[in-house]
Amino acid sequence: MTGEREPEVERRVLAERARLLAHPASEADRGAGIQIVTFTLGGEAWGLEARLVWEVFRVSELARLPGAEAPVTGITPWRGLILPVLDLRAVLGIPWAPLDELRFAVVVGSDRPALGILADAVDEVGSVAEGDLREPPEGVMLHRDHLLGVTAAALPVLDCARLVERYG
Predict the structure, then answer these.
(1) CA distances from 137 to 47, 127, 149, 159 (A)
(2) What is the 3-state secondary structure of 121-164?
(3) Each residue of 37-58: b (16+ CB within 10 Å) or e?
(4) CA-based, 20 to 30 A from 43: which of 90, 121, 123, 163?
């Protein structure tokens, strides 16, 4: 290590990831298919359409909303806004764990930042050819209405537009 404090290194890494995620896709990228941001939740990999991702940030404050209907779990401040925060574990059939284990929020929205989705980690941005995004298998019933599709590599891609419309 070069003597930098780990929080500073972490801040720089997160800022670089956010910058890359916020960069609009070029025409060449669009021709390659759908850009996907992958993240983990409960040890499982999931995807979101990158065009709807505004930023990823470390959650430091989360005010719970008692009585809120799942998956809405609370609110958090972000860049002068108050964002509703979703914990998708219940609707995706992922076992419960303490909220303090979820360290990141992925800010999503179409024309404006609308909500944050809790994640264990945000992994990478990649692309999926549009023809490689398939309907979820018949056995996937619990969270079928939350899915845009499943990649050839079996990565479930959440229907971010539907989540924003329903909870944002």
Answers:
(1) 16, 21, 9, 15
(2) EEEEEEEECHHHCECCCCCCCCCHHHEEEECCCCCEEECHHHHH
(3) bbbebbeeebbbbbbbbbbbbe
(4) 163
* Token pair recorded at residue 89: 């574990």
Sorted by where each starts, the structural domains of the chain and their CATH numbers stand as 6-167 (2.40.50.180)
Instruction: Report the alpha-carbon distance of residue 56 to residue 48 in Å, rounded.
Output: 12
Asked if 21 contacts 50 with a C-beta cutoff of 8 angstroms, the reply is yes
User: What length does the chain have?
Assistant: 168
Write the CA distances from 1 to 4, 9, 10, 74, 120, integer angstroms.
7, 10, 13, 37, 25
Contact 84, 164 (CB under 8 A): no
What are 48's strand-pairing partners? Answer: 37
Three-class secondary structure of residue 101 per DSSP: helix
pLDDT in tens, 50-61: 999 999 999 989
Q: Write the CB contacts of 134 (distance below 8 Å, at least 6 apart in sequence).
A: 149, 150, 151, 152
Query: Could you tell me the pTM of the whole model?
Result: 0.76
Q: According to the model, what pLDDT value does residue 108 have?
A: 96
